Amino acid sequence: MTTSFQSLGLSEARIERLQTLGFEKPTDVQAQAIPMLLQGRDVVGQSQTGTGKTAAFSLPILEQIDAEVPAVQALILTPTRELAQQIAQAVIEFCDDRSMRVLTVCGGQSMERQTRSLQRGVQIVVGTPGRVLDLLDRQKLQLESVSWVVLDEADEMLSMGFIEDVKKILTSAPAERKTACFSATMPRAIQALVKQFMRSPTNIQVAQPKSAPTEIEQRVYKVPRGWSKLNALQPILEFEDPEAALIFVRTKRSAAEVTQKLQAAGHSVDEYHGDLKQSQRERLVQRFRKHQVRMVVATDIAARGLDVENLSHVINYDLPDNPESYIHRIGRTGRAGKTGTAISLSQYADRRMIREIERRSRQTLDVRPIPDRAQVEAQRLEKLQAQVQEALAGERMASFLPIVRELGIEYDPQAIAAAALQMFYDQTRPNWVETDAPKPERPKPKPRTNRKPNQSVTPK
Length: 460
Ligand code: ADP
Ligand code: MG
Description:
By secondary structure, the chain is an alpha/beta fold. It has three domains: 5-205, Rossmann fold (3-Layer(aba) Sandwich), CATH 3.40.50.300; 216-371, P-loop containing nucleotide triphosphate hydrolases (Rossmann fold, 3-Layer(aba) Sandwich); 375-435, no CATH class. The protein is built from 18 helices and 14 strands. The strands form two sheets. It has a seven-stranded parallel beta sheet with strand order 3-4-2-5-6-1-7, sandwiched between helices. It has a seven-stranded parallel beta sheet with strand order 10-11-9-12-13-8-14, sandwiched between helices. Helix 5 (111-120) links the parallel strand 3 and strand 4. The protein is elongated, with a radius of gyration of 27 Å. It starts with 11 loop residues before the first helix and ends in a 33-residue tail after the last helix. It binds adenosine-5'-diphosphate and magnesium ion. Adenosine-5'-diphosphate is lined by residues 22-23, 26-27, 30, 49-55, 304, 324-325, 328.
């Protein structure tokens, strides 16, 4: 069943706005929650990260808020400052109306500034429970005009010890408000809270994906200080040798830069961006699907329009701003029960985000150094061997036997095979330029003696 945003009861203007953001059809949780919230029902939604909850609650609220009234009409509570900022940013993106004011209210920010904004008139407050309660106690924040309270990631708020604060805030909000509660899990304490503070809520359960659980291998490559990510990417790509990869970058500018650099190095790569004509887009998608182009570089926004499944790799050239986007991004690999690989480049400044991702996904990531030349070569030789074994199992090789026989009069069969391998190896060698290869910060302890074939690469 495919639902459209139109059928959910959203306004035309909003739908247009969503289209410019690349939201073409609603996610499951959006399709279920939006009509309910538009009808004024309370909603309890259980759904995982990355299912589009932000739009599920903000769109119906935005439809109903009066931007002319300079009073807080919606209060969104969320466990962390990062989430609050992310939600506020999304809400601003969802509405065209400049007179709509959204304020984030979190600890660690100037309370004075928040108070001043509140005095000037704010329609939507997004905040963490502690600071919201603080402002309530100081009577800087008034809730009498609040018609919606949203509890986002309620289970996280519980595990972070905010639940009593949340209850106090709910008690201070007008009784005739609407309440929406979203949570990935439904522990008892949340169920109790729902029972106490919500009025015959509709339960929304987003079905888990039907396909077999997919496995995603995640690796983080540490980019040493002094190396550029562009240079670090090359040995990573050669080591990983992706069949179909989506490379995420932060900005359009770096998309162009990365694409250009990789193309110059002979990689099969293209850039996907919003300025492409519809026909160009379709052509690129076709080529990508057929593996005629192996890698596509895109920003998060552009990638929304890229309808390609079964990627072998998702590569985070730039890490996203939040763990949710990371999880969303890497979900594009390993679909339909296949194993996928998610690769991230990490610089020193990214270490907090890596930790945040580990916390949110409840697993430890495999952080490793950039593969060196010897590892890349070893990997390629391994692959070569596998390819030879595959060819030996096939039938087409028989047509080459006469050549081998003829050469065999003069040469040793082992030497013939080795020469053929060398030719193949040379042809598939990536032609990255030696001077572009990243240099380690410190001299290597010992020069390697067991040189692999073709270790010296001459500049083009
Ligand atoms: P959650 O809060 O459930 O973890 P988010 O609301 O943060 O998920 O959404 C995850 C990502 O999906 C965001 O980048 C968001 O912009 C994107 N997204 C949400 N809904 C849609 C949609 N209908 N179409 C395209 N992208 C969407
Ligand atoms: Mg969210």
